[in-house]
Design brief:
heterodimer; A: 216 residues; MetI-like fold; B: alpha/beta; Rossmann fold; Alpha-Beta Plaits; six-stranded mixed beta sheet; 14 helices; 39% helix
Chain lengths: 216, 381
């Protein structure tokens, strides 16, 4: 094996950092966009055709760019934000841009699943739009939201594997540079094995949390 | 196909023109005089949904007054406009024209903040309960107070009081999905009443429940009306719900109120065919087919009558008197007796046979007893 334990741990850590940090940011971006996508649509709380159309189209555009292209395309923006275009921090910027719109769609989906009657009940009791969002829509959608976030997190683990292209490091990078390019089967199997365990763990965690908040 | 629909459109237009001419001249009354003792007033309310290329008139010039402390039922088939009607009361819908006044206020003339405040004066319960699945029964009931940012201690006291009122004090920490349909509606009722409203709107509140539970919920609503003096406006397609607890009833058909009056009036003497149809759905005065067969071979010396007894007359041994006094044979073909707002209401289908002269005398006798008699023919029910 061409990789020592330290390198392996380093790679795992980089993957965790990339996924964790980009998840936090993209979650907040996705939350805001997702909620806006729902409440500005026709007949909803804060109907606004213009905002809805712009958001809807904008999200579709971002979602249609393959991640590897997106990563390269946003290099100037990345440099502007983190001061460099290579390394782990530089990989996080495109990952956020990739996952934010994705999470927005997942959140939109979860919120639309909430029974319209609940919103009606909230309006009937004189709740403000903000209260309807925070006290009715989001809590009711929480279980489904958690499952959505799980999907997005696993998507980010996948994306982080491509971060090697901008020198972001991580497990994916290790697999490509040692496992693939230098024909080290052991490293390849090892990294893939770790990724499988990570994904399984994340999915189980997501399922557990979703079940806990659902209480049905 | 196209031609037919064009025809229908043309017909509708003509009809509308005709209808507009028929609009009653609205008496000019001062505001005070007009809405005296009323909690909810619909004044020429029209609601039109604009669709692509066509519009649907959900409500047409609806006038309706619900007096303080009353239980008012609006009945209609699905699509009659009931939902639009009830949603105009708490501004979930905005009338296209006309106005709705609740407790002296027109919600559409208030600021957003005032509307939210006014809504706390109007509770609402729903067919599918619309509870928050992610919150406990306690929090569900507390929600209107939490939204109004009331102090915690007041919320706790009030919620527990209402849970006791609806008989669910032991379920405070349960989640809605652990409850039965009837219990969920009880939570809905507690939630609707927690802000101490003057008005309670019931949107098909018992339509998703089984007959037994329906009865219990209706009794609870009656109790709400009596214990808290809450004015109740309910919409339903079930005449039994109206019969059970309402004081007044209006029949809504294609967006228009075609008949209204006290429940007793409408049930005992429905004026429109649609009202009669609803009444028949609960009064069970259908004449069975085998009896129709008898009717069809109606002979000269036999006549079949429908006799409607109301109130005290229902208790008198009228038929046996007739049979004793006159030389007629009385044969009861069908009979039912129901109670409307505590007044017995009987419905008999009887066959008289005997000499023509004697039958006439017998009928005259019955007529004098304050009961309604109508001859039943084979082709009418």
């Amino acid at each position: 094996m061409l990789v020592n334990q330290e390198q392996l741990l380093q790679a795992i850590w980089e993957t965790v950092v990339m996924v964790g940090v980009s998840l936090i940011f993209s979650f907040f971006i996705g939350l805001v966009l997702g909620v806006l996508l729902v409440v500005t649509r026709k007949g909803h709380l804060l109907e606004n055709q213009i905002i809805f159309t712009i958001l809807n189209a904008g999200i579709n555009i971002f979602r249609s760019i393959p991640f590897i292209i997106l990563m390269v395309a946003v290099i100037p923006f990345t440099r502007l934000i983190v001061g460099t275009s290579i390394g782990t921090a530089a990989a996080i910027v495109p990952m956020i841009l990739f996952a934010g719109p994705y999470i927005a769609r997942l959140i939109e989906n979860s919120l639309l699943e909430v029974d319209q009657g609940v919103i009606e009940a909230a309006q009937a009791m004189g709740a403000t739009p903000w209260q309807i969002m925070t006290r009715f829509l989001l809590p009711e959608a929480l279980s489904s939201l958690l499952l959505g976030i799980t999907i997005a997190t696993i998507g980010l683990v996948g994306a982080s594997a491509m971060a090697g292209a901008v020198g972001g490091g991580g497990l994916g990078d290790l697999a490509i540079t040692y496992g693939y390019q230098r024909f080290d089967t052991v490293v390849m199997l090892l990294t893939v094995g770790i990724l499988i365990i990570m994904v399984q763990g994340l999915q189980s965690l997501g399922n557990y949390l979703a079940r806990r908040v659902r209480r049905r | 196909m196209i031609r037919t629909s064009l025809l229908i459109v043309a017909k509708l237009d003509l009809w509308q023109l005709f209808h507009m001419e028929q609009l009653p001249y609205k008496a000019i009354l001062s505001e005070k005089e007009w809405g005296i003792g009323s909690m909810i007033i619909f004044d020429q309310v029209t609601k039109i949904y604009e669709g692509k290329g066509h519009s649907v008139k959900a409500l047409q010039n609806v006038d309706l007054q619900v007096k303080k402390g009353e239980i008012y039922g609006v009945i209609g088939f699905s699509g009659a406009g009931k939902s639009s009607l009830i949603r105009c009361v708490n501004a979930l819908e905005r009338p296209s024209s006309g106005r709705v006044i609740v407790d002296g206020k027109n919600l559409l003339q208030l600021t957003a903040k005032e509307v939210r405040e006014a809504k706390r004066n109007i509770g609402m319960i729903f067919q599918h309960f619309n509870l928050l699945h992610s919150k406990t029964v306690f929090t569900n009931v507390a929600m209107p107070l939490l939204v109004a940012k009331r102090p915690k201690e007041e919320v706790r006291k009030r919620v527990l009081e209402l849970l006791a009122f609806v008989g669910l004090e032991d379920k405070a920490n349960s989640y809605p999905d652990q409850l039965s349909g009837g219990q969920k509606q009880r939570v809905g009722i507690a939630r609707a009443l927690v802000t101490n409203p003057k008005v309670l709107l019931c949107d098909e509140a018992t339509s998703a429940l089984d007959p037994e539970t329906t009865k219990a919920i209706l009794q609870l609503l009656k109790q709400v009306n009596q214990a808290y003096g809450v004015t109740i406006l309910m919409i339903t397609h079930e005449m039994s719900a109206i019969r059970e607890i309402c004081d007044q009833v209006a029949v809504l058909d294609q967006g228009k109120i075609v008949e209204s009056g006290s429940v007793f009036q409408v049930f005992s003497k429905p004026k429109t065919a649609i009202a009669a149809k609803f009444v028949r759905s609960v009064m069970n005065d259908h004449i069975p087919e085998s009896i129709y067969a008898l009717l069809r071979e109606q002979r000269e010396d036999r006549h079949i009558y429908r006799i409607v007894f109301v109130g005290n007359s229902a208790g008198e041994p009228l038929l046996s008197q007739v049979a004793k006094t006159y030389t007629v044979d009385v044969n009861i073909l069908y009979g039912s007796i129901t109670e409307l707002q505590g007044i017995p209401f009987g419905n008999l289908i009887v066959q008289f046979s005997g000499a023509e002269k004697e039958m006439k005398r017998a009928l005259l006798h019955i007529h004098q007893q304050k009961v309604t008699v109508k001859e039943v023919l084979a082709d009418v029910s």
